[in-house]
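Q: Fold this one first, please.
A: Sequence and structure below.
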Amino acid sequence: MKSIKFILMLLFLCVLSTSLYAQKAKKTTTVKQKYGCSSEIPVAKMYIEDTTPGRGLADNYYLWDNGKIIYVKFLSGSKSLQDKVKTIAKEWEKYANIKFHFVEVGPSHIRINLDDKGGHNSLIGTMAISVPQDEKTMNFDTTDFKTYAAMYRTVLHEFGHAIGLLHEHYSPISGIHWNKEAVYRELKQTQGWTKEMVDVNLFQQYNVNYTNGTKYDPKSIMHYPVFARWTTDNYSVNWNNQLSEGDIALIKLLYPKDGERLNEAPRFTVSDYTNTRVVNSDVKQGISIYPSFNISTAGRPARVYFIAFFYDADGNPIMKDGTTYSISKIAATYKTAVLDVNQKLSANKSKFDEFELFIPYNELPVIKGKNNFQVEFRVYLIDDKELKILYQSKRSLFNFIKS
């Protein structure tokens, strides 16, 4: 079993992004539609590279069950606009063994916000399950819907993310020779993107573990436009307005209407998180942490880590010795277990103290002049070379009182 020091190193150094949603793009005369979407989840990726040819990209860890009925609800938008989104989204149903069932009341898996801000974005696949029922999981900036073609390609793209697809230009063999400085400069000016946002949304590459049998596809609905001025060899990819043959082939493999899914991965989901209760105990000489959540498992068995990280009131990680910053000295506590498939487990639902994370007082030093702290609960899945985030809570405030 990997040591907690190794796990902490991965968690703090390999998480690429903690932002789930896109930034509002600025007006531009060179890019007619807002450029791209920030639909990647905060996922820690640790790979060992190999030379297998790259293919169409999907995150098999966040795929829905094959044959799943996915409940979808609109949080805003006119009925006319909603009806258009419904019609476009159902294009995926022609080829994938899933169904989108649109509801007006009751629980839902996907919740759509339609307004004039927020950019275009969607959580990847089953990550939507971890979001509270009153919050969106997909956003459309309707100022881009001036033409039906723009609306059509955008809705197809975001619903592609919602069923587990990744950006096609992340392919490890796309062979795109970026003129990075030109891209940084233009997207800062026209979209307000920082260098980090460009790196995350354009230049990162996924490992071949995320390939599923179709070659790199520049015609994919999941591919960003690439302008010739952005590459050193004038390579370009236009706006793609419909599902490509590669998209159709890939989605048929991921959600087959006949036979079993290939490349099955552990598919674990955390849902119904309510709060993290913190209890000071002089008897135990430490702090007990009681997160409340459910977890469901499918696909293949895998190891899961339940971790509580501690921060001061300003959001800085607390060090065990109170001063020295080191990965090995980050104040955290965890439990781990290998979970089998087809399980539905609950923690601190019927009884608040049935699942406990505990940290001794000597690992949470008193900081002079401070007694307000924060705790953050995270759940990670480890599968061979892959480290996948399943849940990351908002930070809860608590008072650290040690007598």
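Q: Good. Now the second chain.
A: Here it is, same layout.
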Amino acid sequence: MKATKGFFIFLFLLYIGNLLSIALPIPIPGSVYGMVILLLVLSFRWISMEQIEDITEILLTHMPILFLPGAANIIIIYTDIKGEILKLVIITTVSTVLVMVSTGWTVQKMIQWQEARKQ
């Protein structure tokens, strides 16, 4: 039952994010708006992590399935991108490293901020 409630919380936030995506002139996907709203809702403690914990575990467990359509599409368009593989690998590697570094830095700053707030 907790997973169902958490799933509906995710759906509601995704719906609000999609509405924002339509309403605002900024070309940002609704799912990104939804995740930012989720971050804000959790930060302001309007919902607790326990309310969405079960559904997040389920989604993380099944996350590899979500990558299958993209992988299948790469196989389908392989002949079109065959000459650009090296560029794509370099871009993917550099962007992955940048995301990992920026995420690590952000998490460190958030931990420092939380520790400072506790004291």
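Q: Anything worth noting on the second one?
A: The mean pLDDT is 90.
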